[in-house]
Amino acid sequence: xxxxxxxxxxxxxxxxxxxxxxxxxxxxxxxxxxxxxxxxxxxxxxxxxxxxxxxxxxxxxxxxxxxxxxxxxxxxxxxxxxxxxxxxxxxxx
Length: 93
Description:
Elements: H1 10-22, E1 24-26, H2 27-34, H3 38-50, E2 54-61, E3 64-71, H4 73-92
Antiparallel strand pairs: 1-3, 2-3
């Protein structure tokens, strides 16, 4: 089994793990939980969104913009496969 190179990166695997547990999270909560900058988080989100692992929804609460990130079925499946690959690697070594 091969590791998904997109998920085999610390921030992205933590990010997807958070979304698996919560279904969706606001950008601000992800940023604070992961301890990253706006730009760093945006970069990781863009890579995950290009592969359809997540969707990003931008809305307004009153006059304030709100960005919410959601896991997709593709992202959930990719993460589950990634975890299985990790388990397989651990068992083999």
